[in-house]
């Protein structure tokens, strides 16, 4: 699979964002703007991963 290294890198970034979202969500006063941005970025990564997997 030609896209495997790219997919793995994106999956790693996706997992990192998931960790950051969880950490922000557990704060006493989560930053809603930051959470929205992190979630949007995570969704974009998920979409890119799916496109690469479908291209195979």
3D architecture notes:
The chain has one domain. The chain is mainly alpha-helical. Helix 1 runs antiparallel to helix 2. It is 82% helix and 0% strand.
Write the layout of secondary structure elements.
Layout: H1 4-25, H2 32-55
Amount of helix: over 70%
Distance between the termini: 7 Å
Taken in chain order, the helices and strands follow as: HH
- The helix-and-strand class reads mainly alpha
Give structural attributes.
single chain; 56 residues; mainly alpha; 2 helices; 82% helix; 0% strand
Question: Would you kindly provide a brief summary of this structure?
Answer:
With 56 residues, the chain is mostly helical.
